[in-house]
Amino acid sequence: MKTFTIRDLRDGTGELVCDAEADKLSIITKHGQPVIIAVPFEENLIKNGVNVALAVRLFDEESISLDKAARLAALSVPEFMDHLAQLHIPVARPRPGELESELASF
Description:
- The chain is an alpha+beta fold and 106 residues long.
- The protein has 2 domains: 1-40, 3-Layer(aba) Sandwich (YefM-like fold), CATH 3.40.1620; 42-93, no CATH class.
- The protein contains 7 helices and 3 strands.
- Strands 1-2-3 form a 3-stranded mixed sheet.
- Helix 4 packs antiparallel against helix 5 and helix 5 crosses helix 6.
- 14% of the residues are buried.
């Protein structure tokens, strides 16, 4: 996720559009405070609404936790997990070696 200032936006709209075309979220700030979230357009926005689409994207990018994403989507955690499963987005994302370490501790 990239951050642009209002000044960047005036001078670099093309970069913001290129990022959107590359399926990247962006945040536009004014005086250091976020004022706009630029979300690339996709069918999921229309089908499930902005909150759900944004929650899925932020969770998939590992920017927010499962619990926070579910709250943003206005779904329970199990409902949000079911939605992720329909999109083939894994909920559990162990880091390399993490499973082996956990198994060894048993």
